[in-house]
Amino acid sequence: MNIVVLTGAGISAESGLATFRDLGGIWSQVKLEEVATPEGFAADPERVQAFYNARRAQLREVEPNAAHHALARLEREWRKGSFLLVTQNVDDLHDRAGSQALLHMHGELRRARCLACGTDHRWEDPITAESACPGCGARGRLRPHVVWFGEMPLHMERIEAALANCDLFIAIGTSAQVWPAAGFVRMLPRRARGIEVNPERSAMASSFAEGRRGLATQEVPRLVEELLA
Q1: Annotation marks residue 94 as catalytic
Q2: Binding site for NAD(+): residue ranges?
Q3: Burial class of 206 by CB neighbour count within 10 A (0 to 12, 13 to 18, 19+)
Q4: Cα 97 to the center of its chain, rounded Å
Q5: Which residues are annotated as a binding site for Zn(2+)?
Q6: Which whole-number Å values give the CA distances from 172 to 50, 53, 120, 200, 207, in the listed order?
Q7: Where is the active site (predicted)?
Q8: 82 and 184 part of one domain
Q9: What is the residue-level pLDDT of the chain in tens, covering all 229 positions?
Q10: How far apart are CA 131 and CA 140, in angstroms?
Q11: Of 15, 156, 209, 224, which is most buried with the most CB atoms under 10 A?
Q12: Does residue 128 share a domain with residue 139?
């Protein structure tokens, strides 16, 4: 049985990271077109860098939770087929929990991309106008390695191939409002089963065979135990 797991902001919210679309979330506090679009970056790069620098710094204050660790365990112990974890999150909590069969489809806060040479690199500190690319040495050409609105998500060929061969699709903590991830459940082969793990029904809940309502830190470890039994 081949498993594909999709995670969204809800799984990291339980570690203390703010979500985007919930009441009081990040998009209710800032205008997404100003900090999460190529046009916003071109208009005011300093403001955009400050926004992501603050979010990158916050990662030092949080740790992976029980749901992150349960998914890392599922990957380690799954012997009945393939396993792939796809995350919409730009944090590194899955990485720190030990997940390796992992694709960050919206990029990573702890990486910087160079607009001069196109390479991306691990990056822990604030990005400033004086920051130099570790690859080509160009200064002032780094941007956060995150996918902004209007840009193509990463790793889509690998994700679509995994979905085409999927038997069990599990979506955890997703709002089902951001495409193309919201439509993954509709890309599954007919034989595949879908499970949604969310405190409340998402916009795509009717497309799943099963819905588990509750916190990810409670429901994901329980589901992993069932799958490994």
Answers
A1: no
A2: 8-27, 88-91, 173-175, 198-200, 216
A3: exposed
A4: 14
A5: 114, 117, 133, 136
A6: 29, 27, 28, 11, 14
A7: 106 (proton acceptor)
A8: yes
A9: 999 999 999 999 999 987 654 444 454 467 788 899 999 999 999 999 999 999 999 999 999 999 999 999 999 999 999 999 999 999 999 999 999 999 999 999 999 999 999 999 999 999 999 999 999 999 999 999 999 999 999 999 999 999 999 999 999 999 888 889 989 999 999 999 999 999 999 989 999 999 999 999 999 999 999 999 9
A10: 6
A11: 224
A12: yes
How many domains are contained in the chain?
2
CATH code, domain carrying 56: 3.30.1600.10
Amino acid at 160: E
Same domain for 162 and 95: yes
- What residue numbers bound the domain in which 142 lies? 18-61+108-146
User: How large is the angle between the packed helices 216-228 and 66-77, nearest 10 degrees?
Assistant: 20
